[in-house]
Design brief:
By secondary structure, the protein is of the alpha+beta class. The protein has a 6-stranded antiparallel β-sheet, with helices on both faces. It is globular and about 45 Å long. It has 4 helices and 8 strands. α1 runs antiparallel to α4. β6 and β7 form a beta hairpin.
Length: 220
């Protein structure tokens, strides 16, 4: 039996900033197994399925893993007192080396801004696709200043002199997915819509632990 868990790259932590049910939190993920327990409505599926789905798929074809008579939109995920919120994952690509992928979720207008944080300027899916890892993880507090949530632009100003660079991929999701595939964060190129729909179906069906009404050819 493998007791060491998943090798690299692997999810080291999931963090939230201004997200309903969780507000500001850093949740460490064990490389072997992590269970989220709690009563109904406490945000288990949000952490285990919805936020990873948004981060990895950049929101296209989004479907919440929580059963509901009405569709749940991702712009309802920020706490009502905020106009936007963040969810992100530290990915450990080798021992003690990290890159960050995440999303800024805007309530109105409904928008999702995927981003990548790593250690060099000017990453490009065609010309400069290789991430430079960070020596430390990014935590929820890094997105706050004087207890106020930073915009992506203000995060950039806060950290660029420390060699920590954030790149936004708003309206550039194909480039975002190509970079994740090129750096082996994803094993599928989610810039292909068929691969993307398969992945979303996998998130929702695994969260329900039963079959959903989705085309079997598009499910893992």
């Amino acid at each position: 039996m493998n007791l060491s868990g998943k090798k690299y790259p692997r999810i080291y932590s999931i963090s939230t900033v201004g997200i309903r049910n969780h507000n500001n939190a850093d949740l460490l993920i064990h490389p072997l197994r992590t269970d989220f327990t709690g009563q109904s409505g406490t945000g288990k599926s949000l952490i285990a399925a919805d936020l990873p789905q948004l981060i990895l798929t950049a929101g296209k074809f989004y479907k919440s893993a929580t059963q509901s008579n009405d569709p749940r939109e991702y712009n309802e995920i920020p706490l009502k007192k905020f106009s936007f919120a963040y969810a992100f994952m530290n990915i450990e690509i080798k021992n003690g080396k990290f890159i960050v992928i995440g999303v800024m979720i805007k309530r109105s207008p409904k928008q999702l801004h995927p981003f990548i944080i790593q250690g060099q300027m000017g990453i490009d899916a065609d010309k400069n696709p290789t991430f430079k890892p960070l020596d430390k993880v990014i935590r929820f507090k890094d997105f706050l200043a004087n207890e106020e949530m930073l915009t992506i632009e203000n995060f950039e100003k806060k950290f660029d002199k420390q060699g920590i660079y954030i790149s936004s991929f708003f309206h550039k999701t194909k480039e975002y997915h190509k970079l994740l595939k090129e750096n082996k964060i994803l094993h599928l190129d989610l810039s292909d819509d068929e691969n993307l729909q398969k992945t979303i179906c996998s998130f929702t069906s695994n969260a329900f632990k039963r079959k959903r009404n989705c085309n079997r050819r598009k499910c893992f």
